[in-house]
Amino acid sequence: MSAADAEDFRRTPLPPDLDRILHDLRGPLNAAVMHLEVLKRMTGDEAVARASLASIQQEIERLTRMLPVAFSLSAIEARPARPVLLRAAVESAIDEDARKRVVVAPGPWPEIEGDERLLVMALRQLILNALEVDEASEVHVRVEAGAGDTVSVLIHDRGAGFKGRNPAAIVRLMGSTKPGHLGVGLLAAQRIARLHGGTLTFETSPDGGIVRLSLPLK
Predict the structure, then answer these.
(1) Residues 91 and 130 sit within 8 Å (Cβ to Cβ)
(2) Torsion angle of alpha carbons 156, 157, 158, 160, nearest 10°?
(3) What is the pTM of this model?
(4) Domain spans of the chain?
(5) Helix or strand or coil: residue 82?
(6) CA distance linking residue 103 with residue 210, whole number of Å
(7) Pick the CATH number of 3-74 from 1.10.3430, 1.10.287, 1.20.140, 3.30.160
(8) Tens of pLDDT along 76-105?
(9) Are 74 and 18 contacting, i.e. CB atoms less than 8 angstroms apart?
(10) Cis-peptide, bond into residue 80, ω within 30° of zero
């Protein structure tokens, strides 16, 4: 690859999921570099130096944990597309112990083409996230015709909705603060959507939050 080609390649926008991973990986690296610069300018304040060294160690350890997860997400690939009954995929994505809290609208539900295993994985992550928003409320899943030849699966929870000007910012690598959670479910769902030519978007309604998984029709 020539220098010009390499520069064009570097400037090519990344897909949203990989761009988010890259952004999150830069955080601990930038923090480590910042603290190293502090150490360079130190003139003998040992307390500040120790604090900076501890921060560097923490950020490097965090990066070490993040890298394998990042590459695992990047390695998700779809198998050859096959017909998928969308409602059947939704039903397969609902864990038995949570089924009584998930209401699936009657439809009609269309058939699409894709990797059923990955679609079920994405839907399961979205439904589980919605269930965790309010453990006393139901989650409603419905289908809706989208723009052009697309269809959307809407997962509607009864929480407070998505805060901030950019709801998509909740999709962060290992951003969960819940014990035992890696915080990669939304990123995996976003990547699976893109592999199927679809999108994952977030909306706030008067009675909760809505995650919209949009996919091309068969």
Answers:
(1) no
(2) -100
(3) 0.76
(4) 3-74, 82-216
(5) strand
(6) 14
(7) 1.10.287
(8) 889 999 999 999 999 999 999 889 999 999
(9) yes
(10) no
